[in-house]
Design brief:
By secondary structure, this protein is of the alpha+beta class. The chain is built from 13 helices and twelve strands. The strands form two sheets. Strands 4-5-10-7-9-8 form a six-stranded mixed barrel.
Length: 413
């Protein structure tokens, strides 16, 4: 232990003799480690943001989409075929255990007006259970009930964006809005939710009873999708499979035939949404790691120069009793000290960058305002990797110094 501390003191003293060279040598390590920390922080922040937006869909949710239409060789997206019916909703609700809430959904976009104000927005037809499934409470007002659904009543709940656009600072409760020339009474305003996973404004919406949307607005008998909630997350997979089996039976789809619907659970949606973020983070970390390798090459280069410059010093140390392993440890300690100090400074630089990015996004619109989430395990990994770089790239110069012949070293000028 005494020998190690003495070796470390000698190594640090040698590095202090050439402060500027030592600082410049560690720049590659600093940049590499800082880039890794910042990249992972941004990636984790983006992932957390996406997961929070997925969670805004509700807890333990399964989404059932109707199929697509193929016309003249062109296939449209999910929901265009309208293959789902209210009988499917009743079947899911009654026949599948573990399902605690079901909301049929129809969807359209329309120009809505109130007084002399108008706004183009999304209109959803839902059941009262939809607000429990989405965990979407109201700021003011009340949710429409089953009686409104049975009577296809002309009542509406609006999002915060629609409320601001149509009513400004006025109270919207009890006001009349016209959707495709059909008057609806506003009975509630939703709590703001912000942007969705796809970047759309979730608060730019009007929600009416699904029967009202089907009979009064769209004049259709089929559904675009069905929202299903299970009692627990453990039931998602089994309930999803039962829904597929039930719908194939309802739609008379034989073995080997393609489904005319699509079923996705919340976990699958989250995985799909975060897959791109994970891939990009891994790619950027790999690129940032190149800086660590370049920094390691710089350390090797400087250590070789240092061995050449200190050849006579090495000869004197050997002449007074130093062993080859002492010389090896000294130069290896210098290399590891350089890379470790660079790693520490790099971690601080990466954390500082993560903290600074939100402020930069305020001043420079080209910088995306993504929250950052610093990862302690990645900081430890980056530091250990930087130290390993010092050992790897410092070993050859240290071994070269240890193998010098003492007599030749003393004669070196």
């Amino acid at each position: 232990m005494i020998r190690f501390s003495a070796t470390l003191r000698i190594a640090l003293r040698a590095l202090r003799r050439n402060k500027m060279r030592s600082v410049l040598t560690t720049l590659g390590i600093i940049i590499g480690v800082g880039a890794v920390i910042a990249t992972v922080g941004i990636g984790n922040g983006a992932k957390a943001q996406i997961e929070a937006q997925i969670a805004s869909l509700g807890q333990n949710v399964i989404l059932v989409f109707s199929g697509s239409i193929t016309s003249s060789g062109v296939r449209t997206g999910w929901g265009s075929a309208g293959t789902l019916t209210l009988d499917d909703v009743k079947g899911i609700s009654r026949e599948i255990p573990g399902v605690i809430a079901v909301s049929p959904e129809v969807r359209t976009s329309a120009q809505v007006a109130s007084g002399n104000q108008n706004w183009y927005t999304q209109v959803l037809g839902e059941s009262p259970e939809y607000f429990d499934i989405r965990q979407w409470p109201l700021v003011v007002g009340a949710v429409f009930g089953e009686q409104d659904v049975r009577g296809a009543n002309k009542v509406a709940i609006i999002g915060k964006t629609v409320a601001n656009q149509l009513f400004g600072g006025d109270d919207p409760i009890g006001q009349i809005i016209r959707v495709r020339q059909v008057p609806f009474v506003v009975v509630g305003v939703l709590t703001p939710k912000g942007l969705s996973v796809m970047g759309t404004d979730q608060d730019d919406v009007i929600i009416v009873p699904y029967t009202s949307a089907m009979k009064r607005l769209l004049r259709v008998t089929n559904l675009r999708s069905i929202n299903v909630q299970t009692a627990s997350a453990n039931l998602l997979t089994s309930v999803q499979k039962q829904i597929v089996d039930l719908l194939r039976e309802h739609h008379h789809i034989g073995p080997g035939k393609d489904d005319d619907f699509t079923v996705r659970n919340q976990q699958e949606i989250a995985e799909m949404a975060t897959a791109q973020s994970k891939t990009m983070t891994i790619l950027l970390v790999a690129i940032a790691s190149v800086s660590l390798v370049v920094g390691g090459i710089g350390i090797m280069n400087i250590m070789l120069v240092s061995v050449t410059e200190r050849t006579r010093e090495i000869g004197i140390r050997m002449a007074v009793g130093a062993h080859a392993r002492d010389i090896l440890l000294q130069f290896l300690a210098e290399a590891v000290a350089l890379s470790s100090l660079g790693g520490i400074v790099g971690i601080l630089a990466g954390i500082g960058t993560c903290k600074l990015l939100p402020f930069l996004a305020m001043w420079f619109p080209v910088i995306p305002n993504v929250p950052t989430l610093i990862s302690a395990p990645w900081a430890i990994i980056a530091f250990l990797f930087s130290a390993a770089v010092g050992v790897f790239f410092g070993f050859y110069p240290a071994r070269k110094a240890a193998q010098l012949d003492p007599i030749e070293a003393l004669r070196y000028e």
